Structures are given as structure tokens and as C-alpha cells.
């Protein structure tokens, strides 16, 4: 029991990061109807930017993160602008276009930061907290708190602001959205920017948890995407639940299958998707002839 | 709603409107006018080019036009998303409400181009007065409404911007006769308040009730045009569109 | 044709002479390029032709290579025996990886296949038997009496022969029935199913083909490099492969090969600056999807289209009536009993029962949203009814898949036209004409002459169908570029080409002008006279009145009247519901 609980706790902080990555996927999907395959690479960029500002320029961790988020937001804007001709036209082509961007970003990362990785020391000092015999690292709590805050802010943005409502309206019906005066292109650009910002947040936070390397985002991106699908693609609570679930699944797999954890994680994920393709919070859509 | 006393006399005039979709000509050289405060109908069969005409006026599809003016304004230079800022509201075919958002959000988004302040709140109140059922359902997701309620919502959403010209695309689609008469009542009320309307419909009888002048569109061209009082007695119209 | 043969022969000679002109490093590069070209053809078949987003192609490659390595070094099998086993293993894995395609498509399938590919690299990196991160070295060279295949020059000829056969086979598949059916499924899986294409089986076939090509490439790779390690089969190479296919043009196998050659050469030229090369091809992928979505292969047809645009326009010919076949008996062909269909509480159909006699033309009318199309969708197997029974041709056909119904003699058109947009008009008809079973695709390997003979026969039949419907001049065109009225006719021709006993037409007159409606009436009557029962949904009351023997009126998901057109038109309930009370024309005085 104790071991199980410890495994769950171990999975939750990484799960929170997956949730943030999944939120980025879901936000872009919810507001544009697009799957951004470059999202994982943007996570890597964010991780490198945050760690660079934190380690080299000695900015405080929080400030380094904010700078990283701003820079990746601009990358998001660029991707959206280039692919805009395909918007609302060819979903699959646009998806491949984002893969192309991912390839470019990957190469840029290696050019700028080299092929070897770097370790980022934890920005919060202090021994792990002991609670009922469970060990919880303080940084894990920080990650959880930030992820929770980001989720709440995102939910508030989508549900309470005019811009948030308009962005969702664009994905539901871009023509009707245009007719009420919404600038669809600008809405999509903002969606991409916020999505990229979330990726940078996830990347920055995961730095001290994992080793920052060019392949970091690939793994995080795929698991984050899996999390988004598991929760029900496009659903904000789904992204959070899916992220935590993948994190815990990962942690269990690592505990029981050591090196084979990825294999087990993806096999379980595939099985779940085949049983319930629409995910936990997903809605079944009616196939119209 | 309050009478629109501050209205400028604005006529929508369309000359030589043509729409192509990838080599296929959907609308060819269509011309008509919607004088200020008048209601004009466009009837025709499925695929005759009615919806394309309306979308072209709105700027939602690429268009070529000799002239497209609303009062003093050259609409051919105005992007679709800015039409609402020039007083043109649009009710799309098949309703197209924002299904995953609440009824109230849908209505508020209708006033997207305006600040969501007191004036907009007041307009919202007027909408709930005009469509009491929307008031009862304000917290529900628009996608959960019935077809008739969604149509009311789509009209309400377009009215939220306080347009001076309303473009309506098949508001009767898929509605029962009882609901169609309710829609008709709303349209007649709006017309009495002096709102200019361009109504595209398959249902000729509804159109004849709601408008004063009508175009009959066939194969992308205007086959006939005239006052409703005349078209109603035209033997061809009676046979093809009224089924008499 | 003669030019084509000459070009192929010329290329063959050049390929045969190539080793004499290049050094040992260059021949190595060429050998690797051929392997990538094989992989690209496999990916092109799955993704470009069949529309299955397969991001595990590089894992299939890895399975083939690793299986060869393990079987030769660990189990001590001979190379050729190991090679055959390796391909079998790859196919089994390929089919397993493809199973999710039965449930999910598009980006969902992409992530699942990508995840499974990662699972594969994860396994080989850790498994003792696969040599872990170091991989497996000292794989024996394939032995062939009298030929030393450890020489890269001689290995080239082995690769060349395998590649030529594989490419020829791929092209053969694409240009005959199986490929046509897969392309139809890619363009519109719903319509393909309704025309008898076994969609689940075709999706698995796509993965089968992809894994065969992946496995063969893997075997050749193991024999060539004689060393396997995890990084050769990672995500980076998957995306490189994807880039090859997209840049070359995914819908054309030749394009895929061109893309593979071009991209690999670029990578090789920039091998001292791999990151620049990567930026380069990533950027090219982006530019291609935005500016030339059909890739390099799409450029020649585009140029040709530009040149030809001023040619004479094709014209629609009149429909030629069928011979009358008056052998109709009075049996019931379609019997619907108590069908209900609910969508999340909405009763789209509520206890609907009706029966249609063989040889009848039945009209179904009703206001928009009254459940007419839902009824068609239930009859044709697209929807499972919530309750009730559908009997077709005397057999219970409730919950039978659309393709089985199609094979049992049911055919339909769709309200919003579902033509296969990237197939020509002729191919649209061919898909319907081809009644062979996908399971018979073993003939492609064991008896290809049967396949070609059948295809020739089908082409002749397609010519006859197009001729009858006056569409001959449009045969080579893509339907999406045709005027609406002609597209409608193509869809009817396609539905009739499936030789149905029962034809369902969903608003066939929608969007047609008076003359076209008259022609449609003639066409439908003649189709019926040839022995096909017709049920049509229609709003054009004039057409319904003149054409149908019996009319069923739906309103709110229920049948409110049934009988002869005249009888139905006079029923008060119909006037109330369909014609409606607003429809009463008030005299001028009431206004």
C-alpha cells in the first residue's frame, strides 16, 4: 500500500507536466481544430530557454520561465502565420506541416544548444517533506501548484472572457464566428501563442525533474498528446485527468518494468484508445451521411 | 425592441454579382436592391445559388461584383468579419449556433464587435423579451436546444449587434409549420420596426408573407423578379414554388 | 505507351551500368537510398493511397532488420531462411500495429502508431536478445552460389532486382482494383463502404502492404550493413521518411521514390552539416504542404492542366434508355418493421414500418428533419437502429455492415454527393462495378494475370456504363471540377454500376433545373424498367407526383400517410405537416 502510494506520488508531478503539455494540445484543438505535432519540440525549446536563462544569465527561475514563455509564444505565432493558408481547409496537410516545423525546431535546438543535454538543479532548496511515511519533494509541490494555477487560469480565460468565448466559437463554426465580427486568423494566432506558452511552461518546469536534452520534448510531446486523447481530445479537464493518469501509469510501469516502461505505457494507451476512442470526457459525434 | 428612429436611409444595392467555386459558376450576374426598411426575398430550388448569393454579399465566399454598396459604403472592399461593424447582421443556413457554448454566450458573441457593457446587457434583455424561450434556456448549451430554439438563437445572435440590415439564410429549414409561423411573426415584427431584410428561402410561402419584393433564382441567375403581390399570381411560380 | 517502355528500358540499362561508374562509397550511398525508396513506397501505399496515417513504418523496417539479425546471430539460421521468417514476423507485427485503425483514424491513428514505434525502440534498447543500446553486429552476409554478396557492388544488383519487383508490384496494385478501392476509401470511407468496399479489411491490407515493404527493406538493410542498432529506427528517421513521401507526393509511388532519392541525396551532400540538412528538409516539408500539397509528383499534372485549360469543353450526352425487363414478380424486396432511431434522446425515427414491392418506384417525402435521410442511413447500414428490423430480399439485414448490404444488392446515392474526389469519373464507376472480394487479393501475388484480365473486363464495362449515362467525355476528369448537375449524374451512374436490386436515391433532383429534372425522371424510370426497385427521397413534388407509384410521408420521425401520390396530396395530415398552415396563401384582403 505504502509503495503504491509512493509510486502514485512519484507519477503525479510528472503527470502534472504531461497535463500542461496536454492542455496545450487541447487548447489548440479546441480553438482551431488542429493537432499541432510540433508541440513537443516547442516544449524542448521552452526547456532549453528556461534553463539557459536560469543557469547562464542567473535570472531567478520564475523570471527565466516568463522570458522562455514569451519567446516560445513568438515561435507559436510564426508557425500559425506560415500554415494559415491551410486553416479551415485541409486538416491532415496542416498536421504534416506542423511535423515539418517540428523537424526544423529540432535541428535549431541542436544547432544552438548542441546534441548533449544538461542537468538543471532544483530551484527550490529543502529536504523532502515526510507525510505519513511518504516522501514528497518540495519541487514536486511547486510543479503541482503551478500546473493547477495554469489550469485554473486557462479555464477562467475560456469561460469568463470575451476573447476566450470567441476563440472557442471559432473552432465550433468559423464562418458564424466571422459573421459576428471575430477575426478568425487573429484568434488562431492567439491560440497558437498560448499553446506554445503552455509548452514552454511545461518544458521549463520539467527541466529540474528530468535531464534537458534535444529528445526531451519528443517523449513529453507524445505522452502529452496521449494524455490529451485519453482524457478526451479538446477537453480541458480531460487533459488534466489524462496527464495525471499517464504520469501515474508511467510511474507504475517504471517501477514494475524498469527499462520497458515506455513499451508498457504505449501498449496500455493503445488498448484504452481501442476500447474508448473518445477518451474519458470526449463526446461521441454523430456520423452524418 | 425600441423603434429605430436614428436610422439612416441605407439601400443595399447589388449589381452584377458573380460567384465561382473552382471553375463552377454558382451565381451569374445577379443584380438587386434592398431599399432601406424593406424586406426582399430570394426564392429558388436547392443549389440554385441562393445561399451563394447571400454569402457573397456577406463576403464569406470570393465574389466579383460590378457594384456592392450599402448606403454610401462600398461593401466589396469590406471583409466578412467587418460587415457587422457596418450594420449588417447574418443568420447562417442551418443555424450554426456555437453548439458548445451557452445560449447567453452565443447571444453575447453576437455583440462581439461592441463592448460587453450596459448597452449590450440591455440588448440582451430585449432579446429575452423577443424570444422568451431563450431567457428560460440562457444557461443551457446551444447544441442542446431544439431546432426551432436554435433558429431563434441564431436570429437573436445576429440582432445583438443591432444591425440595420439583416441577411437570413433559410430560417425555416427543418422546422415544423408551427415553428415556421413563429419565425414569421418575428420577421414581421422586425420588419414593422423598420429593419431592412434580405431573406433567402426555399419556402416560397413564408417568403411571400415576410417580404414585399422577391427574386426567383434558378441556376445561378435571376429568373424572375417583382413585387410579391404579382409573383403570387404568376402561373409558373404557383406551379413550381407553391406546388399549386 | 511505346515511349514509356523505352523510358523504363533506358532507366533499367542505366541502373545496371551504374556500379561501373562510381566509387565504393557512392555505391554504399546508392544501396541505402534504394532501401529508403522501398520504405517510402510502403509508406506511400499506406498513407498516400489508402489514407492510413502510419507513423510506424520505420518500426516495421526495424522489426525486419532486427528479426534477421537475431535469427542469424542468435539462432544460427541461414540468411535466406531468416529473411523469410523476418518478413513474416514483420507482417504479423504490422497487422497488430494496424488493428487500432479499425477503431480510430487520422491524428488518433498517427499517435497510436507513433507510440507503438516508440515502444519498439524502447524494447530493442533494453532487450538482451536485441543487444541493447549497442545493437547486434557481425550479421552474416547473405550467401548466393557464385556471387559474393558481401561486396556492395554485387549487393546492389540484389537490391535493384528486389526494388524493381517491389515497385512494379506496388504500381500494379495502385492501378488495379485493390488500389482503386483503397483510394476510394481514402477519399470517402463511408461512400466506399456503401459501394461494397470492405473498409476494415482494406485498412488492414494497407498495413499489410506497408509492413511487407518495411520487412523487405529491413532484411536488405541487415544484409547490407550487417549491423543493427536502435537509433537507425528512431523517430528522426521516421520523420525523414515522412518528409520523403510528402515532398515526393504521397499519392504517387513514383513520387515517393523521387522524394526518397532527392531527400537522401540532399542529406548526403550536407552530411558534414546534418543539422542544416535537417532544417532544410523540415522547411521544404512546410513549404510543400502550403504551396504544392501534391508534392513533386503533382507538378507535371498541374503544368499539363495549365496548358490544356483552353481545350474544347467536354459535353454531356443524352442518357440511353435500358432494355425493358418485365420479369418482375410481386415479391417484397424491402420490409422495414418498427424501426426507431434515437440520437441522445432525440427521436429521429419512431416506430417506422413500410414495405416496398419489387419493381416499384417509391417516393419518400416529408419536411426537412422529418427523418428521411436517417431512414436511408438505417436501411443502408450506416446507422444501427435503436429498435426494429430491416428485411432486404427476404433476409434479415438489421445491423449488417454497409458493404455486405451493397454486395447483397443495395445501392444508394447521398444527399450531399459523396463522389471520390481524387479519382476520375471512370474510376468512380469502376469502384462500383468491381464486385470482387478484397479477400481474393492473394491473386495479386499468385495469379496476377487473373487480376489484369478482370481489370480489362471491368474497364470495358465501365465504358458501357459511361456511354449509357452520356458521361464518356468526362471519363478522365476528377468529379470535383464538374458542374453540380453532372456530378449528380455521375453519382447515379456509379450507384447503378454496382448492379443493385434496390436503389436508394437521396434527393436526386436537388439543385437540378427543370430540364435536368425531366431527364432525371426518364433515367429513373428506365432504371426501374431494367429491373431495379427504386426508393427516392425528394422535395420536388412535381417529380414525385409524376414518377412514383406510391408515396410515404414522414413527419417528426413517423409515417403520417402512405398511398398513391394523389391520395397522399389530399390527406389533411399531410397538408398540415408538410405543406403547413403558413402555406395557406392569404388573399390580399387579409393583409
UniProtKB/TrEMBL annotation, chain A:
Alphabetized GO MF terms? transmembrane transporter activity
Q: How does it sit in the membrane?
A: Multi-pass membrane protein
Q: Which residues cross the membrane?
A: 6-27, 34-55, 61-79, 91-116, 136-158, 190-212, 224-248, 260-279
Quote a single Gene Ontology cellular component term. plasma membrane
| Family annotation (CDD domains) | TM_PBP1_LivH_like
Q: According to its UniProt record, where is this protein located?
A: Cell membrane
Alphabetically sorted, this entry's keywords are: Amino-acid transport, Cell membrane, Membrane, Transmembrane, Transmembrane helix, Transport
Domain of life, source organism: Bacteria
What's an example GO BP annotation here?
amino acid transport
UniProt cross-references to PANTHER family, sorted A to Z = AMINO ACID ABC TRANSPORTER PERMEASE PROTEIN, BRANCHED-CHAIN AMINO ACID TRANSPORT SYSTEM PERMEASE PROTEIN LIVH
- Name-wise, this protein is Branched-chain amino acid ABC transporter permease
TrEMBL record, chain B:
Q: Which keywords accompany this UniProt record?
A: Amino-acid transport, ATP-binding, Nucleotide-binding, Transport
May I ask which residue range the UniProt record assigns to the signal sequence? Answer: none
Give the ABC transporter domain ranges. 12-244
Q: Which PROSITE patterns match?
A: ABC_TRANSPORTER_1 (PS00211), ABC_TRANSPORTER_2 (PS50893)
Q: Which GO terms describe its biological process?
A: L-amino acid transport
Q: GO MF terms on file?
A: ATP binding; ATP hydrolysis activity; branched-chain amino acid transmembrane transporter activity
Please name the SMART domains in this protein's record. AAA
Q: Carries keyword Transport?
A: yes
Which InterPro entries does the entry link to? AAA+_ATPase (IPR003593), ABC_transporter-like_ATP-bd (IPR003439), ABC_transporter-like_CS (IPR017871), BCAA_Transport_ATP-bd_LivF (IPR052156), P-loop_NTPase (IPR027417)
What Pfam families does its record include?
Answer: ABC_tran (PF00005)
The UniProt entry's sequence similarity note says:
Belongs to the ABC transporter superfamily.
Protein name per its UniProtKB record: ABC transporter ATP-binding protein
Organism lineage reads as: Bacteria, Bacillati, Actinomycetota, Actinomycetes, Micromonosporales
UniProtKB/TrEMBL annotation, chain C:
Q: Where is the signal peptide?
A: none
Where is the chain membrane-spanning? 25-46, 53-71, 77-96, 108-125, 154-174, 206-229, 235-266, 278-299
Q: Coiled coil: which residue ranges?
A: none
Name its species: Winogradskya consettensis
GO CC terms: plasma membrane
Per UniProt, the keywords (alphabetical) are: ATP-binding, Cell membrane, Hydrolase, Membrane, Nucleotide-binding, Transmembrane, Transmembrane helix, Transport
Q: What is this protein called?
A: Metal-dependent hydrolase
Show where the ABC transporter domain sits.
Answer: 334-581
GO MF = ATP binding; ATP hydrolysis activity; branched-chain amino acid transmembrane transporter activity
InterPro entries reported for this sequence: AAA+_ATPase (IPR003593), ABC_AA/LPS_Transport (IPR051120), ABC_transp_permease (IPR001851), ABC_transporter-like_ATP-bd (IPR003439), BCA_ABC_TP_C (IPR032823), LivM-like (IPR043428), P-loop_NTPase (IPR027417)
Compartment list: Cell membrane
Q: What SUPFAM superfamilies does the annotation carry?
A: P-loop containing nucleoside triphosphate hydrolases (SSF52540)
Q: What is its main location?
A: membrane
Q: Which SMART domains match?
A: AAA
Q: How does it sit in the membrane?
A: Multi-pass membrane protein
Amino acid at each position: 500500500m505504502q509503495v503504491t502510494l509512493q509510486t502514485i506520488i512519484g507519477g503525479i508531478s510528472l503527470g502534472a507536466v504531461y497535463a500542461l503539455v496536454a492542455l496545450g494540445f487541447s487548447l489548440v484543438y479546441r480553438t482551431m481544430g488542429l493537432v499541432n505535432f510540433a508541440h513537443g519540440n516547442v516544449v524542448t525549446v521552452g526547456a532549453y530557454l528556461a534553463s539557459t536563462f536560469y543557469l547562464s544569465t542567473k535570472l531567478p527561475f520564475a523570471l527565466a520561465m516568463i522570458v522562455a514563455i514569451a519567446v516560445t509564444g513568438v515561435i507559436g505565432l510564426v508557425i500559425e502565420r506560415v500554415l494559415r493558408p491551410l486553416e479551415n481547409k485541409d486538416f491532415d496537410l496542416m498536421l504534416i506541416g506542423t511535423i515539418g516545423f517540428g523537424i526544423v525546431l529540432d535541428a535549431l535546438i541542436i544547432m544552438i544548444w548542441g546534441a548533449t543535454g544538461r542537468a538543471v538543479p532544483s530551484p527550490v532548496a529543502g529536504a523532502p517533506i515526510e507525510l505519513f511515511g511518504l516522501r514528497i519533494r518540495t519541487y514536486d509541490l511547486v510543479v503541482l501548484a503551478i500546473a493547477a494555477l495554469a489550469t485554473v487560469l486557462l479555464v477562467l480565460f475560456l469561460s469568463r472572457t470575451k476573447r476566450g468565448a470567441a476563440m472557442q466559437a471559432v473552432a465550433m463554426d468559423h464562418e458564424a464566428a466571422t459573421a459576428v465580427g471575430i477575426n478568425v486568423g487573429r484568434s488562431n494566432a492567439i491560440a497558437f501563442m498560448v499553446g506554445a506558452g503552455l509548452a514552454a511552461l511545461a518544458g521549463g518546469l520539467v527541466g529540474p525533474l528530468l535531464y534537458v536534452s534535444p529528445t526531451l520534448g519528443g517523449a513529453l510531446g507524445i505522452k502529452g498528446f496521449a494524455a490529451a486523447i485519453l482524457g478526451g481530445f479538446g477537453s480541458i479537464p480531460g487533459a488534466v485527468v489524462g496527464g495525471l493518469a499517464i504520469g501515474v501509469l508511467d510511474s507504475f510501469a517504471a517501477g514494475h518494468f524498469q527499462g520497458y516502461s515506455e513499451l508498457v505505457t504505449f501498449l496500455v494507451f493503445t488498448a484504452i484508445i481501442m476500447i474508448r476512442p473518445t477518451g474519458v470526457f470526449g463526446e461521441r459525434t454523430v456520423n452524418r451521411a | 425592441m425600441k423603434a429605430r428612429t436614428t436610422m439612416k436611409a441605407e439601400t443595399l444595392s447589388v449589381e452584377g454579382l458573380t460567384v465561382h467555386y473552382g471553375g463552377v459558376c454558382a451565381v451569374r450576374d445577379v443584380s438587386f436592391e434592398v431599399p432601406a426598411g424593406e424586406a426582399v426575398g430570394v426564392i429558388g430550388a436547392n443549389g440554385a445559388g441562393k445561399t451563394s448569393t447571400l454569402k457573397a454579399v456577406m463576403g464569406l465566399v470570393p465574389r466579383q461584383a460590378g457594384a456592392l454598396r450599402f448606403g454610401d459604403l462600398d461593401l466589396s472592399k469590406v471583409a466578412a468579419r467587418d460587415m457587422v461593424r457596418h450594420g449588417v447582421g447574418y443568420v447562417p443556413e442551418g443555424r450554426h449556433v456555437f453548439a458548445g457554448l451557452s445560449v447567453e454566450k452565443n447571444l453575447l458573441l453576437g455583440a462581439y464587435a461592441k463592448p460587453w457593457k450596459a448597452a449590450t446587457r440591455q440588448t440582451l434583455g430585449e432579446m429575452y423579451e423577443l424570444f422568451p424561450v431563450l431567457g428560460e434556456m440562457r444557461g443551457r448549451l446551444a447544441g442542446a436546444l431544439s431546432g426551432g430554439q436554435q433558429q431563434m438563437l441564431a436570429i437573436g445572435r445576429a440582432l445583438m449587434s443591432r444591425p440595420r440590415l439583416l441577411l437570413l439564410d433559410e430560417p425555416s429549414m427543418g422546422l415544423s409549420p408551427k415553428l415556421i409561423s413563429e419565425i414569421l411573426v418575428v420577421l414581421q415584427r422586425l420588419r414593422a420596426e423598420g429593419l431592412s431584410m434580405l431573406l433567402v428561402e426555399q419556402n416560397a410561402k413564408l417568403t411571400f408573407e415576410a417580404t414585399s419584393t422577391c427574386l426567383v433564382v434558378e441556376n445561378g441567375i435571376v429568373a424572375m423578379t417583382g413585387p410579391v403581390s404579382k409573383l403570387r399570381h404568376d402561373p409558373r411560380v404557383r406551379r413550381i414554388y407553391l406546388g399549386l | 505507351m511505346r515511349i514509356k517502355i523505352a523510358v523504363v528500358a533506358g532507366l533499367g540499362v542505366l541502373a545496371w551500368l551504374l556500379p561501373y561508374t562510381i566509387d565504393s562509397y557512392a555505391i554504399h550511398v546508392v544501396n541505402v537510398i534504394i532501401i529508403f525508396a522501398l520504405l517510402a513506397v510502403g509508406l506511400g501505399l499506406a498513407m498516400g493511397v489508402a489514407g492510413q496515417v502510419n507513423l510506424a513504418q520505420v518500426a516495421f523496417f526495424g522489426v525486419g532488420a532486427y528479426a534477421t539479425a537475431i535469427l542469424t546471430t542468435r539462432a544460427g539460421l541461414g540468411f535466406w531462411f531468416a529473411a523469410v521468417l523476418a518478413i513474416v514476423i514483420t507482417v504479423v507485427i504490422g497487422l497488430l500495429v494496424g488493428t487500432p485503425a479499425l477503431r480510430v483514424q487520422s491524428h488518433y491513428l498517427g499517435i497510436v502508431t507513433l507510440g507503438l514505434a516508440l515502444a519498439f525502440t524502447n524494447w530493442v534498447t533494453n532487450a538482451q536478445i536485441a543487444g541493447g543500446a549497442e545493437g547486434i553486429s557481425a550479421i552474416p552476409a547473405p550467401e548466393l552460389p557464385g556471387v559474393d554478396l558481401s561486396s556492395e557492388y554485387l549487393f546492389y544488383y540484389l537490391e535493384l532486382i528486389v526494388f524493381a519487383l517491389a515497385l512494379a508490384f506496388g504500381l500494379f496494385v495502385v492501378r488495379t482494383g485493390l488500389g482503386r478501392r483503397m483510394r476510394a476509401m481514402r477519399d470517402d470511407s463511408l461512400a466506399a463502404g456503401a459501394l461494397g468496399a470492405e473498409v476494415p479489411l482494406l485498412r488492414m491490407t494497407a498495413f499489410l502492404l506497408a509492413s511487407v515493404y518495411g520487412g523487405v527493406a529491413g532484411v536488405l538493410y541487415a544484409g547490407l550493413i550487417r549491423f543493427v542498432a536502435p537509433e537507425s529506427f528512431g523517430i528522426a528517421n521516421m520523420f525523414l521518411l515522412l518528409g520523403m513521401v510528402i515532398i515526393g507526393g504521397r499519392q504517387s509511388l513514383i513520387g515517393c521514390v523521387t522524394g526518397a532519392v532527392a531527400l537522401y541525396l540532399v542529406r548526403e551532400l550536407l552530411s558534414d552539416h546534418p543539422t542544416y540538412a535537417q532544417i532544410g528538409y523540415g522547411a521544404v516539408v512546410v513549404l510543400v504542404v502550403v504551396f504544392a500539397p501534391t508534392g513533386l509528383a503533382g507538378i507535371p499534372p498541374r503544368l499539363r492542366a495549365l496548358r490544356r485549360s483552353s481545350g474544347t469543353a467536354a459535353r454531356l450526352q443524352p442518357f440511353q434508355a435500358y432494355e425493358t425487363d418485365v420479369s418482375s414478380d410481386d415479391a417484397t424486396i424491402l420490409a422495414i418493421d418498427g424501426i426507431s432511431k434515437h440520437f441522445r434522446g432525440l427521436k429521429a425515427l419512431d416506430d417506422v414500418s413500410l414495405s416496398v414491392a419489387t419493381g416499384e418506384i417509391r417516393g419518400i417525402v416529408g419536411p426537412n428533419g422529418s427523418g428521411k435521410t436517417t431512414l436511408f442511413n438505417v436501411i443502408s447500414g450506416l446507422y444501427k437502429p435503436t429498435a426494429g428490423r430491416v428485411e432486404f430480399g427476404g433476409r434479415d439485414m438489421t445491423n449488417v455492415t454497409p458493404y455486405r448490404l451493397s454486395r447483397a444488392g443495395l445501392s444508394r446515392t447521398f444527399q450531399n454527393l459523396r463522389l471520390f474526389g481524387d479519382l476520375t469519373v471512370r474510376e468512380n464507376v469502376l469502384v462500383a462495378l468491381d464486385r470482387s472480394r478484397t479477400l481474393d487479393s492473394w491473386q495479386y501475388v499468385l495469379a496476377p494475370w487473373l487480376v489484369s484480365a478482370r481489370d480489362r473486363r471491368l474497364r470495358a464495362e465501365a465504358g458501357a456504363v459511361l456511354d449509357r449515362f452520356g458521361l464518356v467525355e468526362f471519363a478522365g476528369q476528377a468529379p470535383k471540377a464538374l458542374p453540380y448537375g453532372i456530378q449528380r449524374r455521375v453519382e447515379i451512374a456509379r450507384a447503378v454500376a454496382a448492379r443493385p436490386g434496390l436503389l436508394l436515391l437521396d434527393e436526386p433532383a436537388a439543385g437540378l433545373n427543370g430540364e435536368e429534372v425531366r431527364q432525371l425522371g426518364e433515367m429513373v424510370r428506365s432504371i426501374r424498367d431494367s429491373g431495379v426497385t427504386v426508393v427516392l427521397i425528394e422535395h420536388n413534388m412535381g417529380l414525385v407526383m409524376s414518377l412514383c407509384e406510391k408515396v410515404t410521408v414522414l413527419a417528426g420521425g413517423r409515417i403520417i400517410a402512405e398511398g398513391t401520390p394523389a391520395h397522399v396530396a389530399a390527406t389533411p395530415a399531410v397538408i398540415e405537416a408538410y405543406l403547413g398552415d403558413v402555406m395557406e396563401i392569404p388573399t390580399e384582403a387579409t393583409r
